[in-house]
Amino acid sequence: QVQLLESGGGLVQAGDSLRLSCAASGRAIIDYGMGWFRQAPGKEREFVAAISKTGRITYYGGLLRDRFTVSRLNAKNTVYLQMTKLNPEDTAVYSCAARYTEFDIVSQSDHEYAYWGQGTQVTVSS
Question: Quick one: pLDDT at residue 40?
């Protein structure tokens, strides 16, 4: 099984950028489609972005494609989420998730991801 550890969160001002990292151990992430989700207090978990096994396909929730970029370096066993033009509505705990699959496709359904990191807090002040 794969273990996931997020890092890179913190407190930033509106308009700033952050890059989150998700370091995997125990398995090679080439076998896994990867996703990012976020959850703010009082809200449901929200899909942010997903990337297929090889990086061939990326997908974003809502209009986040304009500001967020998901990428992966399989040789480093790491997935990234580059976030720009952050605003207070982006404040949430961001979690990395892994989905074992034979196919180089993406999923936005949280129940399809079996492995999750502990989450990293992103707080955007105005």
Answer: 97
Residue 20: CB atoms within 10 A of its CB come to: 23
User: Quick one: pLDDT at residue 1?
Assistant: 87
Token pair of 82 as six digits: 């580059």
Q: What is the mean pLDDT of residues 52-78?
A: 96
The answer to whether 19 touches 82, Cβ cutoff 8 Å, is: yes
Tell me phi and psi for residue 105, to 5 degrees.
-130, 175
Question: Going along 9-105, which residue ranges are E strands?
Answer: 10-13, 18-25, 32-39, 46-51, 58-60, 68-73, 78-83, 92-100
Q: Which two tokens stand for residue 83?
A: 């976030």
* Secondary structure of residue 100 in the 3-state scheme: strand
Degrees, nearest 5: CA angle 17-81-13: 20
CA distance 124 to 126: 7
